Amino acid sequence: MESQQNIKIFITNLSYSNISFERGGSLLEFNQQLANYIILDNLQVVNIYQGYISIEAANKSRLTRKTKVQIQNSKFDTINAGFFSLLILNEGALLNIMNSTFNQVSSLEEGAIIFADYQETETNIYSSSFTNNTSVKGSLFNIKDSSVVRCYNCQMVANFAIISGLVYVSDDGFFEFYG
Amino acid sequence: MYNSINLSNLRFTRINDEIATDSDNKIILFDLYNITADKNTSINNILISNSSIVLMTINDIIGTTTSIAHMNFTNIVYEN
C-alpha cells in the first residue's frame, strides 16, 4: 500500500495459511505515510515458508510522517522464514504490536521475528508472547543502525539461538525491556 | 465517478502468477487508486485459495485536513 494522505484503514480478520514463497516474498507490504496507523486486528499467519511483512516509507525525504502499522490481537504460528525475518523494517517504519502471540517462527539468519534494519526504525510491543522461536543469531530480534525495539509486559519462553539467545543488537541498535 | 467501493463474498481459486515474486511484474487483482476523502471503501469476505497472486494495491488516496477517507477490510483469507 502506498499513499500519502489522510485516511483511516482497518484490516480485520485477515488470514494467511499454508503459503510457500520459494524465493521469498511479501505477505503484506506497507509504504504509506499517513497521519494514522493502519490497524490490523486479528491477523492470523500460520504455516508459511519464506513469506514476510515489510514496512518501509516510500518517500525518504518526507519522514515527518512515518509508515505506521499496528498489529493487534494476532497470531503467528509455524513460520519458516528461511533467510528472512517475519517482519522486516526499514527507514521510516513505526510498528506497534499488541496482545499477540508468536510461536514456532524460525530463521536461518538473525532475528526470526523482527529485522529492524537501516535505519532508525521504531517498534513497540505490548502484552505479547514469544515461544519456541529459533534462529542462528538472536532468536527474536535483529536490531541495527539506530533502530529501537521496546517490549512492555512481554513473555519470552523457550526461544533458541546459537549466538545471542534472544536479541542481536549491532551498529547503535537499541533494545529496551520493561517487565 | 463512484460514491463508494463495496466488494464482498468473492472467491478466487487457482490463479497463478508465475512471476509474482518479481516486484516489477506482479499481476494484481484489484488496483485501487485516486480514492478521494469523501468515498468509503469496504471489502469483505474474500477467499483466495491455491493461488499465487497479489490481491490488492492501494495508491494515491486523497484525504484532506477536514475529511478522512475510510477503508475497511474484513474476513480476507489466503490459503493453500
Provide an overview of this structure:
The complex is a heterodimer of chains A (179) and B (80). With 179 residues, chain A is mainly β. Chain A has one domain: E3 ubiquitin-protein ligase SopA (Pectate Lyase C-like), CATH 2.160.20. Chain A has no helices and 18 strands. Chain A has a 16-stranded parallel β-sheet that branches. With 80 residues, chain B is an all-beta fold. Chain B has one domain. The chains are: A mainly beta (179), B mainly beta (80). At the A-B interface, strand 1 of A face strand 4 and strand 5 of B.
Can you describe this structure in just a few lines?
Chain A is mainly β and about 180 residues long. In chain A, about 0% of the residues lie in helices and about 60% in strands. In chain A, the strands form two sheets. Chain A has a 16-stranded parallel β-sheet that branches. In chain A, strands 12-16 form a two-stranded parallel sheet.
> Percent helix among the residues of chain B?
under 10%
Residue share in β-strands of chain B: over 45%
Number of strands of chain B: 5
Which oligomeric form is depicted? Answer: heterodimer
Question: Which characteristics define this entry?
Answer:
heterodimer; A: 179 residues; mainly beta; Pectate Lyase C-like; 16-stranded parallel beta sheet; two-stranded parallel ribbon; B: 80 residues; three-stranded parallel beta sheet; two-stranded parallel sheet; 5 strands
